[in-house]
Amino acid sequence: MQVTSEQFSALEKDFRKRRRERLLTAVRSLLGHMPNAISDADALRRINEAIEDGKMINITTDEDLIRFAALAFLPDSVLRDPVITSSLVRTLNRDEWESSKRLDFIYAHVVNKLIPLSP
What we know:
The chain is mainly alpha-helical and 119 residues long.
């Protein structure tokens, strides 16, 4: 049996869609809720952006992507704070640390201190 390029493209597209949906479900579980003002379409857009941005800073496993993507759903007051934003950016860009270590640091020293997450 041979798979045509069109069939392969359709399979790949379906895989990517299901992966985004799984990641979004996991982000919702991590956060405990999704802010009401965020539509499903906007939430999936943020997941897509996290996947693409994650590639640039070597965050590629689903486990790390979930925590990385969840950062995009932090309250605006947190995301607009220059001190917090600077800390996030500097930590995420520490390429001498593996992605899980960077995210562990961010959650231990920033996220968990600011907002309660689901247990």
